[in-house]
From TrEMBL:
<dbReference type="Pfam" id="PF02811">
    <property type="entry name" value="PHP"/>
</dbReference>
<keyword id="KW-0548">Nucleotidyltransferase</keyword>
<keyword id="KW-0239">DNA-directed DNA polymerase</keyword>
<dbReference type="InterPro" id="IPR041931">
    <property type="entry name" value="DNA_pol3_alpha_thumb_dom"/>
</dbReference>
<dbReference type="InterPro" id="IPR004013">
    <property type="entry name" value="PHP_dom"/>
</dbReference>
<dbReference type="InterPro" id="IPR004805">
    <property type="entry name" value="DnaE2/DnaE/PolC"/>
</dbReference>
<feature type="domain" description="PHP">
    <location>
        <begin position="8"/>
        <end position="156"/>
    </location>
</feature>
<feature type="domain" description="DNA polymerase helix-hairpin-helix motif">
    <location>
        <begin position="749"/>
        <end position="836"/>
    </location>
</feature>
<dbReference type="InterPro" id="IPR040982">
    <property type="entry name" value="DNA_pol3_finger"/>
</dbReference>
<keyword id="KW-0235">DNA replication</keyword>
<dbReference type="InterPro" id="IPR029460">
    <property type="entry name" value="DNAPol_HHH"/>
</dbReference>
<dbReference type="InterPro" id="IPR011708">
    <property type="entry name" value="DNA_pol3_alpha_NTPase_dom"/>
</dbReference>
<keyword id="KW-0808">Transferase</keyword>
<feature type="domain" description="Bacterial DNA polymerase III alpha subunit NTPase">
    <location>
        <begin position="269"/>
        <end position="512"/>
    </location>
</feature>
<dbReference type="Pfam" id="PF17657">
    <property type="entry name" value="DNA_pol3_finger"/>
</dbReference>
<dbReference type="Pfam" id="PF07733">
    <property type="entry name" value="DNA_pol3_alpha"/>
</dbReference>
<protein>
    <recommendedName>
        <fullName>DNA-directed DNA polymerase</fullName>
        <ecNumber>2.7.7.7</ecNumber>
    </recommendedName>
</protein>
Length: 987
């Protein structure tokens, strides 16, 4: 046997540059016939290790951190059988889930069956005792290992000078003394790139260096033998110990847990649930052609049963039912699952697949063995509640989250290497810029850094938790896959999603999206007005909603907020639900090129359908293939494919593999000819499919997400105050967005009121007078403080300022009180801010006992400029008082309009916050200015003629009277006509 015991892969994070994908070829090239994998304390690579096709023998192990005789140390453990492999998994999980990140010796003893243990060289407590010249301790430790472990060997390491001279001879002597065989140990952490490895190990710990400056490269087998030339018998031991090992982990058949009571047929129960569910749907909103639904339902149920997925649908139905019962909103659908009538009947989705012409085969294809994939959307603040329910129902060892790996990217690898080389931030930035902007690099030092960065690029840097994926199984997963702690309360698999799916485990994505929370809370506010909305029976031809969409008033509307999408909406001016479905599918790199074509054809531009037989498929999208389902339907109708076959065609051509494309071309043409079509037309249609195949979008997903977008647009159009109240709460920590949203509320005449210590807390509050600002959004006010205020308030309202201070004396300090005062939260006590501030000191408890009738001293209010500055410091912007608010009488006298109300040429008052002067091609100065009144901000263009007259006034710090008109040629941009100083204001 020719193997390197102690080899570590890239999955010994930040401790190896040996890449698993090339490891087997590297070993063969260096003369090995066996791979010993022994990463540090984990089995991240274990599935991949056994998946790579190779003729090399594979032996899986770990270098384990353990506690032995009250000392932290390490030991190698290698599995010899399936049982040993299972014990390796258990030990890895125990270690990763333990607080001390080490295996207790009692656990090592308990799970040692079919494991070979080897002392870990310089990292072993035995070798360290020898280095300390404490042979008695070394003997004591060897005796303990020999007594406790059935298969224990002494690891002989000679790859550092210290180990070769000071330790190896003693290990040999102790081996003879205790009749314990030695095994050749060579820890390999890199192939040849020693400098890259030295840099890698410094990334997390800047002082870390190779032990004893040893050679931890992967030698050739001949070099390995040469290094152990004085101990040649160790290779005979390798042969005798490991030669008979010949196992690959057994493939486990995983089944989903069954949510039903024992003895109940999953097939029959699912059938009954679907029939009842469809009947309920029909009663709520009559289904056209019920017989079509019944036929489709039976077909889907037969496919689901044949593929063995009855329990899958029951499991999903069960936790969706729980969510809805608990008032947790569930998204209408995501991905191809929206094409399933079974999902619709069960209430898993809320998109009618027949009404929207969605295909079941896009979701579950009876001719392609694949896992069903139902992804669920929940409000992001409720997602964990649903997962906790699933864990409680099926058990913590049956429900696990999934590990992800963060890898070194181009820029991050350069930055990390620069840091290990002691480069300054400025030099690091310069190096990153040189490397990423195609400069020609000649500086040797920079070239060296980039070479090191390239050596670590793509290596895993750290682990994370999959954002949504959860694995469920009826099998106890703690005996099948290695586990570790994750970011949630769940155990987390050490294997990533790709490995788990290849093993046959089913992944369900529980996604948390903010928009569902916004919808849910908006509905709650609407219900307080005694208005009840059925979200899934909204009129899909609502004029007010489409007017909002057409003017791109889509701030806060799911999928429609981006600047690019707003441009599309203003050009398209959608007037039907299908427009939304199409735009969500088209608004992506690639298909985006077809948006203008779609809009032009929709407006009446002529086009053809290639063949009139395809008209009913392509007419809704004006001859453009937008959806993957259209490809499937074309193949079905024109070439007589079954929908299952058509899905295989759709998948094949989307891969753009030349062999697949040619094979599918031959098949498509032949089937079309057999269907009495001409070969020439078949070729033309196949090429047309290819044109769109790469960009075709899943219509099921697009319909489901268009539904959420429409629902939010409807709520905003009809219940603007409630929608914006919830939206403000969702972005309360983002001051810029808060200011923007408040400006939009003001445009509609809705006031945002100062915080109020008697009612404000964590959310914006909708009242008949306006929307009350929350305490949590005030600067220097944290969650704990707000919680204390709310708790105290539950005992009764605060009687006055002194009562407030007295009741919260243990929870307030000067900074908190100052922030509350100048935010306006304490105005309810009827005192001005100057008086509140001067009396902010706490009442001393002992002093209170003697003085019962303290008279509060009052002060004149601060000047306006002080109040403006202090309010801005407390809130991050001016809510109740602005630089122009003192000119309210002047604005009324001269009929000046506010900045938020410029729809034609008007005079207004504003402060120039920013000015950028440029030169035209003719060499004349012009400017772009930002004008604000403290609540609304406008970007205004100052053309050369106007700038020549008024440019000097634009730099002053006082507000100005401005004459502004909308720019008719550029949306919501504005043009300055003239400026005037405010009477009695400083010029």
């Amino acid at each position: 046997m020719k193997g390197c015991i102690g080899l570590q892969s890239e999955y010994s994070l930040l401790n190896s540059t040996i890449r698993l994908e090339t490891l087997f070829e590297d070993l063969k090239h260096r003369g090995y016939d066996t791979v010993f994998l022994s990463d540090d304390n984990n089995l991240y690579a274990s599935y991949k290790f056994f998946s790579v096709p190779t003729d090399l023998k594979r032996i899986l192990g770990m270098r384990l951190s353990i506690i032995h005789l009250e000392q932290a140390t390490t030991i190698y453990a290698y599995a010899t059988t399936q049982k040993g492999h299972q014990n390796l998994i258990i030990l890895s999980s125990l270690l990763q889930l333990s607080k001390q990140k080490a295996v207790d010796m009692n656990d090592l003893i308990k799970y040692q069956e079919d494991l070979i243990f080897i002392s870990a060289g310089y990292a072993s407590d035995i070798d360290q005792a020898i280095l300390k010249k404490d042979l008695n301790d070394a003997r004591r430790r060897i005796e303990s290992y020999r007594y406790l472990l059935k298969q224990f060997y002494l690891g002989l390491m000679v790859q550092t000078l210290k180990m070769e001279i000071e330790v190896a001879p003693t290990i040999k002597a102790l081996s003879n003394e205790y009749k314990i065989d030695m095994l050749p140990l060579h820890q390999a952490n890199y192939l040849d790139e020693v400098e890259a490895y030295d840099a890698l190990i410094k990334i997390e710990h800047s002082e870390r260096v190779r032990y004893d400056e040893g050679d931890f490269s992967l030698p050739s087998f001949e070099q390995l033998k040469q290094s152990f030339s004085e101990y040649t018998s160790v290779f005979n031991t390798v042969e005798s110990v490991f030669s008979k090992i010949d196992f690959v982990p057994e493939k486990v058949t995983f089944k989903l847990p069954n949510p039903l009571e024992p003895g109940i047929s999953s097939k029959a129960y699912l059938q009954d649930l679907c029939e009842v569910g469809l009947s309920i749907r029909h009663k709520k909103q009559p289904l056209k052609h019920p017989e079509v639904y019944k036929e489709r339902l039976q077909y889907e149920l037969s496919v689901i049963d044949k593929m063995g997925y009855n329990n899958y649908f029951l499991v999903v139905w069960d936790f969706v039912k729980y969510a809805k019962k608990e008032g947790i909103m569930v998204g209408p659908g995501r991905g191809s699952a929206a094409g399933s009538l079974v999902s619709f009947a069960l209430g898993i989705t809320d998109v009618d697949p027949i009404k929207y012409d969605l295909l079941f085969e896009r979701f579950l294809n009876p001719e392609r063995i694949s896992m069903p994939d139902i992804d669920l959307d929940f409000p992001d603040n409720k997602r964990d509640d649903v997962i906790r329910y699933v864990q409680a129902k099926y058990g913590k060892h049956h429900v696990v989250s999934i590990t992800t790996f963060g890898t070194f990217q181009v820029k991050s690898s350069i930055r990390d290497i620069c840091r290990t080389q002691g480069l300054s931030v400025a030099d690091t930035n310069r190096t990153v810029k040189l490397a990423t902007e195609a400069y020609e690099i000649t500086d040797p030092k920079t070239l060296h850094i980039l070479k090191l960065a390239q050596a670590i690029e793509g290596l895993p840097r750290h682990t994370g938790t999959h954002a949504a994926g959860i694995i469920l199984s009826s099998v106890d997963l703690s005996r099948i896959i290695p586990l570790q702690s994750g970011s949630s309360e769940l155990y987390q698999s050490q294997l990533e999603a790709e490995d788990l799916e290849k093993m046959g485990l089913l992944k369900i994505d529980f996604l948390g999206i903010r928009n569902l929370q916004i919808i849910k809370e908006t509905l709650g506010l609407i219900e307080q007005k005694n208005i009840k909305l059925d979200l899934y029976n909204l009129p899909l031809n609502d004029t007010k909603t489409f007017e909002l969409l057409s003017r791109a008033d889509t701030v806060g509307v799911f999928q429609l907020e981006s600047i690019g999408m707003k441009r599309v909406l203003t050009k398209l001016k959608p007037n039907q639900f299908e427009d939304l479905v199409a735009i969500l599918a088209l608004f992506r790199p690639g298909p985006m090129d077809n948006i203008d074509v779609y809009i032009e054809r929709r407006a009446g531009q002529k086009f053809d359908y290639i063949d009139e037989e395809l008209k009913d498929i392509l007419a809704p999208t004006y001859g453009i293939i937008i959806y993957q389902e259209q490809i499937m339907k074309i193949a079905s109708k024109f070439a007589n494919y079954t929908l299952a076959e058509a899905d295989l065609l759709r998948r094949g051509v989307s891969k753009k593999d030349k062999d697949i494309l040619e094979n599918e071309r031959v098949k498509f043409i032949q089937k079309a000819v057999n269907n009495h079509k001409s070969e020439a037309l078949a070729i033309k249609i196949y090429d047309y499919i290819l044109k769109f195949a790469l960009y075709g979008f899943n219509r099921s997903h697009s319909v489901a997400y268009a539904m959420v977008a429409y629902q939010m647009a409807y709520l905003k159009a009809h219940h603007f105050d409630a929608f914006m109240t919830v939206l403000l709460t969702s972005i309360a920590s983002n001051t810029d967005q808060v200011v923007d949203y408040i400006g939009k509320l003001k445009e509609k005449g809705i006031k945002v009121l100062k915080p109020n210590i008697q009612v404000s807390a964590f959310e914006f509050i909708l009242t008949d007078q306006g929307i009350i600002y929350p305490l949590i959004a005030i600067k220097n006010i944290g969650t704990q403080t707000v919680t204390k205020i709310v708790e105290e308030r539950q005992q009764g309202p605060f009687k006055d300022f002194d009562d407030f201070k007295k009741r919260l004396s243990n929870d307030l300090n000067d900074k908190i009180i100052e922030a509350l005062i100048f935010s306006g939260a304490l105005d309810v006590f009827g005192l001005n801010k100057h008086t509140l501030y001067e009396n902010r000191q706490m009442i001393h408890k002992d002093y209170e006992l003697f003085v019962s009738d303290i008279v509060m001293k009052t002060f004149d209010e601060y000047p306006n400029d002080v109040l403006i500055e202090k309010e801005k410091a407390a809130l991050g912007f001016n809510l109740s008082i602005t630089p122009v608010s003192i000119y309210e009488d002047l604005m009324k006298q001269h009929q000046l309009k506010p900045l938020s109300d410029i729809d034609h040429t008007v005079r207004t008052i504003g402060l120039v916050k920013r000015i950028k002067v440029i030169q035209t091609k003719q060499g004349k100065d012009m400017a772009f200015i930002e004008v604000s009144d403290g609540q609304t901000t406008l970007d205004v263009t100052v053309f050369p003629e106007v700038y020549a007259k008024y440019g000097s006034m634009l730099s002053q710090k006082d507000p100005l009277i401005l004459t502004i008109e909308p720019n008719q040629y550029d949306g919501k941009k504005y043009i300055l006509i003239r400026t005037e100083n405010i009477p009695d204001a400083k010029p």
